[in-house]
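User: Can you predict the 3D structure for this chain?
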Amino acid sequence: MPSSPPPPDSSTYFRKGFGLKAEIQEELAAYEGALVDRMKASDYTLSAGDVTIRLAREFGFCYGVERAVEYAYQTRRKFPDRRIVLVGEIIHNPYVNARLRDMGIEILDRAERVAFDFSSIRPEDVVILPAFGVTIEDFERLRGLGCILVDTTCGSVLNVWKRVESYARDGFTALIHGKYYHEETRATASQVRKHGEGHYLIVRDMSEARVVCDFIEGKADASAISSRFAPHAVSPGFEPSAHLRKIGVANQTTMLARESLAIGQEIGAAIARSRGETARTAEFRTFDTICSATQERQDAVIELLSEPLDAMIVIGGYNSSNTISLAALCAERVPTYHVESAAAIDPERKSIHYRRAGIKHVEAETSDWLPSSGTVRVGLTAGASTPNNKIGEAIVRILATRGLDPD
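Assistant: Here is the predicted structure, written as structure tokens:
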């Protein structure tokens, strides 16, 4: 059984920062946005000429992201002469990660490897754990090296870890709605190891969840599970017949909330159809573990979509799960353009380079996204890892596409 983490704020492990928040405020102010503040003060609206931009009422940096970024800056201030290494990206925003690199913080890239390569880390180094957390295996490897660990794992992620740990402790398999390759989901899945032979299965969406339901109801055999999920999305030694009887549902915190809830309901219903309501009561558990910030941003964009809009801009990293979920919601109602940054909007060419919502890794460019004349209403939101200054830059470029200025 893996050992427990050291207590917070021990000599080599820190989860509460270093008390240097006041000293780094000027540096963190770079992420603020005066234009965004102005819109918030004007009912989240900005009008110039015939163009009106409407901002969702919840958007951008969440508390967990702010905390992670702040702790990274505190770490640099606390250890100005130490080598500092970040285990993967702190959050999924290219601008924020680039700024950390500019501060001399090295970012380890796992790339296609199963695990991070920690061979270059020495006991005198400082290692930052990202907001997504790390797997139990990676944590123990780093702890064994004796380096200083600064843990920025989001509290919402920790809550999911507690949930899947409780499933494993009680003999339930954790069925996780998430992306098997995502840092958070990998870290969450690893938590089942705290209790001996704990197991997990990761489903990406409802279609994969229905494969599990078919097995539960005897409509598919074990080979259907193995061919669809093994080896990347199941725990080592996973045996469908043994490990899909008692199931507890959890999720990556940034998934589409309504789909996570629907998956839980579908799995529970399959157990009831197969073995009766008594089995659903005794051998099935589900909890909504979508983080509150993710839920609030999804609710806010749904509210905004009730208004007449000609286009929707969603700003955030292409590898940002919560941003992808926002774009998917928007694309159901209005032409939607997921951009990584304001640079994707080219006012001179009147074009936009964007990721197509709902189509993995497919990018496109178009020059007719914003009508050249007439009244236009553009909606805008941003993922939880997008800072306000980047949102403000996008607003300026949207208006400039029509030859307008926000002032």
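Residues 64-153 form a domain with the Rossmann fold fold (CATH 3.40.50.11270). The chain has three domains: 32-61+293-401, 64-153, 156-290.
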